[in-house]
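Sync notes, pocket subgroup
Present: LS, DG
LS reminded everyone that the earlier model was apo-only. Rerun requested with pyridoxal-5'-phosphate included. Inputs:
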Amino acid sequence: MIPYGRQFISEQDIEAVVDVLRSDFLTQGPAIPAFEQAIAQYCGVAHAIAVSNATAALHIACLALDVGRGDFVWTSPNTFVASANCARYCGASVDFVDVDPKTYNMCPEKLAEKLKEAEKAGTLPKVVIPVHFAGTPCDMARIHTLSEQYGFKIIEDASHAIGSCYEDSRIGDCQFSDIAVFSFHPVKIITSGEGGMATTRSPDLARRLQLYRSHGITREPSELEDVTQGAWYYEQQMLGYNYRLTDLQAALGLSQLQNIEAWITRRHEILAQYDAAFADLPVTRPSYPGNVRSSLHLYPIQVADRRRVFEGMRAAGILVNVHYIPVHTQPDFQKLGFAWGDFPQSEDYYKSAISLPMFASLSDAQCSDVIKTLRDLLQ
Ligand SMILES: *Cc1c(COP(=O)(O)O)cnc(C)c1O
């Protein structure tokens, strides 16, 4: 069996977790700030806030930007449902901007057109959430320029994209956004079991994210409203959640981060093997803008008879997958009034998309097996 993505756990990772198990703190100990600082340093950003998963990070990112009832939040239909649900958790309305057929990312021209219409209708979004699909960064400079023109905030859903670069900026440095969000689910680039991180340049947003992560509670003497109480005293200053990461998870994430560059290099080797092998097959391969480095979370191709290819690959023990069913077509989104046909580029892409195995520990022999199986199915 070859999955489409999987984690790699080294002896060093195991030792890092065991060390925490033998220590004084299983949660809220020193591993969490160490992981946060390492991610902040890797991304070149001032603040990183660790949370229990990227879904939680997206939720508190919306809250930190004051998303609430009556607000609109726009994202891409070609994503996991969490990119859209975060706005719904806050009582806001979701809408989508269709994708570019080459990158499968939110199309900046379509965004510009939709903003123009929304301005006339008085329904401009408060927040736009571009998703760096498969690790390929969105056209952030264009989206950022539009944000200044129309006054919306930007949350990057960078769940696929730790280690990706856009021009000379690393995804997560928030050069073109307010907050960026990473996922450390086991299929992603690095893992902490479950886990997520929000990064920001803003000290104010960082503080709000920290409060929302942990019940809205502070113990900081300088932040308390009532300064007459003793050392036991804490205050709940807003309605927050328990979205904390554990030290066990943070230690694993920190240990994994040490390998990220080697793993992304290995993903690029696999990309080169796939690209060379499929050049003469009836396959649409992913294409990458010249000004980005993708972390290559996924290798999504398009084929004419997707169901037959999907079933053929699965029957051969190659657990291909499909990313993504357009979010607006999910039954729970159709209840909100969305329908098939609303975002045709995302739907066209979805109808022929299939994700081949892509992960750092995929061996050359496994890679050849994937190539041969696909060749046999397509010839
Ligand atoms: C995985 C993923 C998420 C959710 O991440 P979790 O850490 O599992 O909550 C959100 N958005 C995208 C695009 C993802 O791929």
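DG: The radius of gyration is 21 Å.
LS: The pocket of pyridoxal-5'-phosphate is lined by residues 53-55, 79-80, 82-83, 131, 157, 159-160, 183, 185, 196 (CB under 6 Å).
Action: DG to write up.
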